[in-house]
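Quiz preparation item.
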């Protein structure tokens, strides 16, 4: 079994060469999980503040954060903006039906979707439709123009179906971490 270096210079076994995104956290201990929770709560915490919050000194906390970044548990840091304050009053859910569901046609459509900043999220879905998009626009006129001039003209698009958000109950939430069972402390961590 291949091994990886932990934040403290120890090695840990890993199953195969699976991408970090596929991992379900078997190598995370309570400090790693506390770091993930702390950074999801406030990514602007200094290393010293994070260390105090999780109960470690600054140096091992820094090594652990770097390890979590290198292993792909932490993908990046960004500010959460209030869409209304920056003039994005319309939030739409758009189901896109594809003309053809072949691998090459789907890949071309995926690439076109990735290039559009108005689309803030996209999921390949089961059931009716091909993709479910989250689209932001300043107002209904701007959304209408985007839908008719851009979305309907993307490669391989047959039809679109739109629902508008009437109010957000929850958004920008941290990922749940309760399913990550911390490994015992005595594992050399």
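Solution:
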């Amino acid at each position: 079994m291949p091994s990886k270096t932990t934040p403290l210079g120890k090695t840990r076994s890993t199953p195969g060469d699976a991408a970090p995104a596929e991992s379900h956290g078997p190598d995370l201990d309570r400090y790693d999980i506390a770091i993930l929770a702390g950074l999801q709560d406030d990514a602007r915490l200094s290393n010293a503040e994070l260390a105090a919050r999780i109960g470690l000194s600054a140096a091992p906390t820094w090594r652990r954060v770097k390890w979590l970044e290198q292993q792909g548990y932490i993908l990046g840091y960004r500010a959460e903006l209030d869409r209304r304050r920056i003039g994005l009053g319309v939030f739409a859910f758009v189901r896109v039906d594809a003309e053809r569901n072949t691998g090459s046609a789907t890949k071309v459509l995926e690439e076109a979707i990735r290039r559009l900043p108005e689309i803030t999220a996209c999921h390949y879905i089961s059931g009716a439709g091909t993709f479910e998009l989250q689209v932001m626009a300043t107002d209904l006129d701007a959304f209408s123009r985007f839908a008719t001039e851009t979305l309907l003209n993307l490669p391989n698009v047959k039809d679109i179906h739109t629902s508008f958000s009437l109010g957000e109950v929850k958004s920008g939430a941290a990922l749940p971490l309760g399913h990550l069972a911390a490994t015992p402390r005595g594992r050399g961590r």
